[in-house]
């Protein structure tokens, strides 16, 4: 740890789900890069997004992934979309279901947003193992 890093207080349930959904490698790399600027943010998203929302019993992870993909497309967050496309596959969405989510998003989020999303999806779905 650099002199600017600090010990994190990460929600254990949130961290476990975050690692399962996004992949341990991604999460470990992100946590290792925490410093005095990003530490509070990492605690916040681990506790509330991953521990508070992704652990709720009302929706399964497949449904949460589909919703997340749609929201990311709608707001044009393509870097996050790439990460969550891999997560969607890890959560059990098929390639065909992902394409259907993108098509649905074209109507409700707009064609330009879907154009960008399809370009990202084409790249991710062409990877040998996008869930790694």
TrEMBL record:
Protein name: Carboxymuconolactone decarboxylase-like domain-containing protein
InterPro entries from the UniProt entry: 4CMD/NDH-1_regulator, AhpD-like, CMD-like, Decarb_PcaC
Domain Carboxymuconolactone decarboxylase-like: 40-122
